[in-house]
Amino acid sequence: LVLDDGGGFWQGISAAEYLAERGADVELVSPARAVGLGIPEESVANVHRRLRSNGARFRALSQVSGVDGTTVHLADVISGEPSETAADLVVVVSSLRVEDGLAAELAGSVPALVAIGDCAAPRRLNHAVLEANLALRRFHEGRLGSRSLVLF
User: Which of 26, 82, 102, 125 is in the most buried spot, having the most CB atoms within 10 Å?
Assistant: First the structure.
């Protein structure tokens, strides 16, 4: 069982797809009206198709209320009606965190350093692209050293 409650974005969906491609019996559970609502419009149909072709099942408008051994207790998000399903593994997306080890290691040892994307804060790719563009503009304007290093 993969819980798709991180806004319906790639983390849970990717985990489900990875497991389903390797033959696992996967059920995606989402408190939203559908799984993968955070996936970009141009990608969601293909993601759903790949998941379904690998046997993944979808359960929308449900949330996990508890796990007892291999029994997963669910509740309908609208009515609160309980239900159960069985799972040998429950995958939950945990808090995202900064990956700034390399930036910290390089700080002070390079003429300039710009940390963007997950190196600065967990976020989506479009935010990292914007940050990269802003860093490149600062470099072009001479506001960063000629040997600047941009970390994603």
Answer: 26
Tally of CB atoms within 10 A around 37: 14
Per DSSP, what are the bridge partners of residue 84?
Answer: 73
* Neighbour tally for 8: CB within 10 Å: 22
What pLDDT, on the 0 to 100 scale, is given for residue 141?
Answer: 83
Q: Give residue 21's identity as a one-letter amino acid code.
A: E
pLDDT tens, residue by residue, 17-39: 999 999 999 999 999 998 888 88
**The two structure tokens encoding residue 4:** 């798709």
Residues of the chain with pLDDT under 50: 152
